[in-house]
Amino acid sequence: MTTLTLNKKYGITEKKKAELDALSNEVLIAQNEVEQLQAIVNSLTEKSNNLDSLLAVDMQNKNTALANKESLNQIIDNVFDVLINSKITFKGILKSDVKIKEVAQSIEVVINKLIYSAEVVNKLSNLVIRKKAQNPLISDELVTMVTNAGTSANNAVALTLTALNSVVASQTTTIESQGVMALEFLQAIRLFEFITGYVFEHQNEEEINSFINRLYDYKKEIINATSFSDEANLTSLIYLAYDNAVVKYNSTLRANKKASEQLNEAETRLSKATIKLNSLEAGLAAANAAALAS
To answer: How many angstroms separate the CA atoms of 276 and 282, rounded?
Structure first.
């Protein structure tokens, strides 16, 4: 073998070695990229899983807050109904009480007249009986009629007194009902104040009537309210809790979507890098085999 041939063969070997070294370096770079991308995918997968768990919790909290809000709205409806119905009933009882008093006064007038009439009839009856004893010519029918008239007058007084007693009993029941309905109405007001934070400055008829008249408008204001004052009350707290739950859920949802997008992008890059690495490793293996065969 000549020197020229040896130099030529040596040159080819060095060239192949350089090509193999270059391929090996590309494989190392590709392996490093795959490892980095795999670490990113692992991190984003963990982040996405954590956000999935947080999103499930936030969804449950939002649903619970919504259920609380709807329950509160139902309670407000019920309180409004109690306020309106108790007020209407209370007014009805007051009107009934006025009517009962008028009836009682009328019966009292009738009783006084009946008592006076009964006394007159009784005196007339006694007079006729005495005259009958003195004068047998006085008709027995007249005596009987006068006596019966006295009895009827006394019976009429007794019956009217019974009617008056019934009226008094009705008035007593009405008074008791007034107390019950007034208590129910005041309790409904206290409950309404506790729920909404609305406070009656003066618990008088004028303010209560004004409040009742605009009750449903006030309810609409509560239901459609987007913000509440700093004064703590049940409505503002529950509505604020729901608003915060919605904000928290939406924030977690956005973060979760962003993490999913990042994870998908990283997985795509990892897939491409893995394909490239596999190709480079296959090329390096083929080059090594060719070098050994030559």
So the answer is: 10
Nearest Cα residue to 215 out of 94, 91, 78? 78
Domain ranges of the chain: 12-293
Q: Which residues of 24-59 are buried (b: 16+ CB within 10 A; e: fewer)?
A: eebbeebeebbeebeebbeebeebbeebeebbeebe
What is the per-residue pLDDT for 214? 57
Q: In this predicted model, what pLDDT tens digit does every residue of 230-281 receive, in sequence order?
A: 455 677 778 888 888 999 999 999 999 999 999 999 999 999 999 999 988 8
Proportion of the chain above pLDDT 70, given as a percent:
49
> Residue 230: phi, psi to the nearest 5?
-75, -15
Q: Report the distance separating Cα 289 and Cα 292, nearest Å.
A: 5
Read off the DSSP letter of residue 226.
Answer: S
Model pLDDT for residues 45-66, shown as the tens digit of each residue = 999 999 999 999 999 999 999 9
* Beta carbons of 143 and 129 less than 8 angstroms apart: yes
Spatial distance between the Cα atoms of 163 and 114, rounded to a whole number of angstroms:
13
How many whole angstroms separate alpha carbon 164 and alpha carbon 172? 12
Q: Are 108 and 164 in contact (CB under 8 A)?
A: yes
Q: What is the mean pLDDT of residues 161-168?
A: 66
Nearest CA-CA partner of 117 in 163, 162, 152: 152
Q: What angle do CA 285, 290, 294 make, to 5 degrees?
A: 150
CATH classification for the domain delimited by 12-293, as one of 3.90.550.10, 1.10.287.950, 2.60.120.10, 2.60.40.1240? 1.10.287.950
Question: E-assigned strands of the chain?
Answer: none
